[in-house]
Design goal:
Elements: H1 2-17, E1 63-69, E2 72-77, H2 83-89, H3 99-109, H4 112-122, H5 126-136, H6 145-150, H7 170-175, H8 190-208, H9 211-220, H10 222-234, H11 248-251, H12 253-265, E3 283-287, E4 292-293, H13 294-301, H14 305-311, E5 319-320, E6 327-331, H15 332-344, E7 352-356, E8 361-362, H16 363-369, H17 374-381, E9 387-389, E10 394-398, H18 403-407, H19 412-417, E11 422-424, E12 426-434, H20 441-448, H21 452-458, E13 472-480, H22 516-521, H23 527-534
Antiparallel strand pairs: 1-2, 3-6, 4-5, 7-10, 8-9, 9-11, 12-13
Helix pairs in contact: 3-12, 5-8, 8-9, 9-10, 13-14, 13-15, 16-17, 20-21
Length: about 550
């Protein structure tokens, strides 16, 4: 009887529970170009309601029909009408109440254009995030967190150097295996950053046992939240999110998320509906096996470079290196076009490659070695003036035209870990010189092409101070920073020795030795006259 019941229910459940449309038919077939690996184009089915688990409550379901089989009533499940409905079904966090929530709701509602811009950006990424949350059994409120973090902008960078739509700091990103090289930054990558963010949130929830505290730790740091909890425990105070003493940014953090949740729950109440987001995938992932220029990939996919970068924001250079970024994301239908166009493409895929500097060198020398102008080399590698390229730096240079050069990918260790290291072309070193008669900071500065204020500051005196003759004066002179170069770039004058005799160094003569006058009287040359005769004369 149970088997008969299951067989009778199967068609109904398949039709009613499917949340995504079938994959578009592919007319391209399997790609034969090694730049892209063929894979079945099957749209990921939206999972049904996630079961109860340690990280969330049971997901509510909506009945749409009742059937009777074997005298027993059976209800089928309704597919969500759009992605917002699917998100609402997965809400599992307790609601936060209070003045801060009402304040943030009012703030968002007063900016409808801002909400529209955010939700339009989110439409590219939200389906994937919801799928990942459901697979992990996590509350779908967390899919709204990038609204708070970055307004769903994967290119966002904070003043503290947090990057991507999940706003990972560099060190935290490395802790969660987000590669950061000169060629890519996984903190911006849609798939990698979402995986890392959910890993981190799950870790924080295990630590604190409460989603609100986990979110506070995501914003403020787990150590800060732990110390705030310990402080309240010592004082005999409650340790919930709203009971802790925390910075204003963290105090408003969860209320912001709750405000967005409230708007999603009842958008009509808050001055209009949210923009529609269909409940099906926006993008498909296409593996690549050869380096490819961003412009070429966009052209083959028949999308603009801006749209391509919106799905592949980690590729912040003009070329994608297959050994470091083995897949690209494309709008679902354009993924089919990309594979079809790639099959018929006869030109080169990549015009750029990576070159590792063998030694520390001037930018002009590095550019010349690679057949580039200095200005082009600086521009493509973002090198400011006055800097040297340090040994081991990975830099973009034109790829050779030979067949082997076109077929050779940049090595994985360079693609994953390459960095550009720069050093000032000159360094300043402290040099001590002796003051001349009536020297001041201004006269010393003029002699070495320095600032009078700097000379005064280095010596702890005022600008109008007069140094004593022979007094040691500190100046900072520029030296070349190239290996082995130790000479200053400003000539150091050889200061005359100052003595107590005011004529020293000018007209003072050494005492004549006995016999010198007699020798002169006899017409014999003295040592001084002999030296004068042999010394070269200055031309007038």
């Amino acid at each position: 009887m149970n088997r008969l019941l299951a067989l009778a229910l199967a068609p109904l459940l398949i039709v009613a529970g499917c949340a995504t449309p079938p994959a578009p038919p592919s007319s391209a077939g399997a790609s034969s170009d090694p730049a892209v690996a063929s894979k079945p184009r099957v749209a990921p089915a939206a999972p049904g309601p996630s079961p109860s688990g340690p990280t969330g409550a049971a997901t509510p379901v909506l009945p749409i029909a009742t059937a009777t089989i074997g005298g027993q009533p059976v209800q089928a499940l309704a597919a969500p009408k759009d992605l917002w409905e699917r998100i609402r079904r997965g809400f599992a966090m307790p609601d936060l109440q209070g003045e801060l929530v009402r304040d943030r709701v009012a703030w968002y509602v007063s900016r409808p254009d801002y909400i529209i811009r955010m939700t339009e950006r989110s439409s590219k990424y939200l389906f994937h995030i919801v799928e990942e949350l459901e697979l992990r059994g996590m509350p779908t409120e967390l899919a709204l967190l990038p609204f708070v973090e970055s307004a769903f902008n994967p290119q966002a960078v904070s003043s503290a150097k947090a990057a991507g739509m999940w706003q990972f700091m560099p060190a935290t990103g490395k802790d969660f295996s987000l590669k950061q090289s000169v060629f890519r930054d996984d903190r911006r990558d849609v798939l990698a950053s979402t995986r890392a963010a959910l890993d981190y949130l799950q870790k924080l929830h295990r630590m604190f046992g409460d989603w609100h505290l986990a979110l506070a730790a995501y914003n403020w740091g787990e150590g800060s939240v732990s110390r705030a909890i310990a402080k309240n425990q010592r004082a005999g105070l409650p340790t919930g999110y709203q009971d802790l003493t925390m910075p204003n940014e963290t105090r408003y953090y969860v209320p912001k998320l709750q405000a967005i949740k409230n708007i999603v729950v009842d958008s009509a109440r808050y001055q209009g509906a949210l923009p529609d987001i269909p409940n099906h995938p926006y993008f498909d992932s296409i593996p690549i096996q050869r380096d490819i220029d961003v412009a070429v990939a966009a052209r083959l996919a028949e999308v603009s470079v801006a749209d391509f970068r919106s799905l592949n924001p980690s590729a912040h250079r003009p070329v994608i290196l297959a050994e470091g970024t083995p897949q690209i994301l494309l709008p679902w239908d354009n993924a089919v076009l990309f594979q079809r166009n790639l099959q018929s493409h006869n030109g080169k895929l990549a015009s750029w490659t990576a070159w590792v500097a063998p030694a520390t060198m001037r930018v002009s020398d590095a550019a010349q070695r690679n057949g580039m102008s200095e200005s082009e080399f600086r521009s493509v590698n973002h090198i400011p003036p006055g800097m040297l390229v340090k040994a081991g730096s990975s830099l973009l240079v034109p790829r050779g035209e030979s067949e082997s050069a076109q077929q050779t990918n940049v090595a994985s260790h360079v693609a994953d870990n390459g960095q550009v290291s720069l050093a000032p072309e000159v360094v300043y070193k402290s040099v001590h010189v002796k003051a001349r008669k009536r020297d001041t900071p201004a006269s010393v500065a003029a002699r070495y092409k320095l600032s009078a204020a700097n000379v005064a500051r280095w010596n702890g005196v005022g600008v109008g101070h007069r140094f004593k003759p022979g007094q040691g004066v500190t100046v900072m002179l520029p030296f070349s920073n190239l290996p082995g170069a130790q000479r200053p770039l400003v000539t150091v004058a050889h200061e005359p020795e100052e003595t107590g005799n005011p004529k020293a160094g000018k007209s003072a003569k050494a005492p004549a030795r006995k016999g010198a006058k007699a020798s002169a009287a006899r017409g014999k040359p003295t040592p001084a006259r002999a030296a004068a005769k042999t010394a070269p004369r200055k031309r007038k």
